[in-house]
Amino acid sequence: MSRRKTSTIVAALATAAATICALLLGLSPANAHGVAIVPGSRTYLCYQDGLTGTGALTPTNPACQAAVAQGGTTPLYNWFAVLDSNAGGRGQGYVPDGTLCSAGNKSPYDFAAFNAARDDWPKTHLTSGATVEVDYSNWAAHPGEFRVYLTKQGWSPTTPLAWADLGLLTTVANPPQVGSPGADGGHYYWNLTLPSGRSGAAEMFIQWVRSDSQENFFSCSDLVFDGGHGEVTGIHLPTSSSSPSPSTGTSPSPSPSASPSTSPSPSASSSPSSSPSSSPSPSSSPSGTMPSSGCMATYSVVGSWGGGFQASVEVMNHNATPVNSWTLKWQTGPGTTITSLWNGALTTSGSDVTVKNAAYNGTIAANSSTTLGFTANSTGNNFPTGSISCTAA
């Protein structure tokens, strides 16, 4: 299945779920709306982070949790409605600094919490100079143009976003769409070449200016230029198809059953020979951080059963040179205890988990990866709480 088709299905599921949840809570879905879903906007990724099997929204990301604590979950159920009905294409001088991510606080919903100047929002990891596909939700399709801005080199996410921080990258008028608008979950899409020579944190701000009314939509996406290929970190995703990724052409995907060619297969004493027959299909939660070392990790649940599950973690090196050692750290979900781990050295302290490389898989070649696995007892919390950190030397 193509990435574009997959992201269409994803958008359909997300928007349909949002409508159902809004109806169940007595909310009225907005009639016209849209934000970036690749790279994911703050509202979209926090919505994804909060999804549960019951329809409730319970984010694990600290910034998303703080946004819910301040404004409740209603803005998340309406993640697509960051809008100003009277903006009419006005930006700087009209939308106050520090309120760009909330449409100047003029939306029907209170998105003020998503202006918070902090560095722990969910992030999309990208490579300077790469070409990515931008996907923008088109629940209600309208003619108009998309103004794509990027913060300047050196901008800090701990300072409120201001117009002076931004430079206009491009303006895209009436880009093509895929899928149907509304409940069918379609989106606009276009290719965007990222500027060269960039590193560190950045914010992508997009203002969608309708040409058939005064209504405009606003979207803030947190980025890191660190050699990434569209990985989303700092987010808890319930399934492997919960969030599309930019079409950089080299985006890695978790491979729960694959073992690195440079490491031996786990022995019978260190890994299960089979999963219980009741295990569901694999699910993934791209969750982690990618510091300047170029190291990051993605977490996948291979299978689960009553009282336990099996997981796989792919450790990736996005450096141009090999790394010689790596260390992962994360916190297990409440009631989860790792019982067996292979292809790594495990240390635990309560819910805190540290995994260092084994003697045979510490070296990871440039733009390559290795994989570890484990089994755990669980009361149903099969994913980490928050992010997985990865450091390498």
UniProtKB/TrEMBL annotation:
GO terms for biological process: polysaccharide catabolic process. Residues 238-292 have a biased composition (Low complexity). Residues 1-32 form the signal peptide. Residues 234-292 are annotated as: Disordered. It comes from the Bacteria. One of its GO terms (molecular function) is polysaccharide binding. SUPFAM superfamilies: Carbohydrate-binding domain, E set domains. Keywords: Carbohydrate metabolism, Polysaccharide degradation, Signal. The keyword Signal applies. This is Cellulose binding domain-containing protein. It comes from Kitasatospora cineracea.
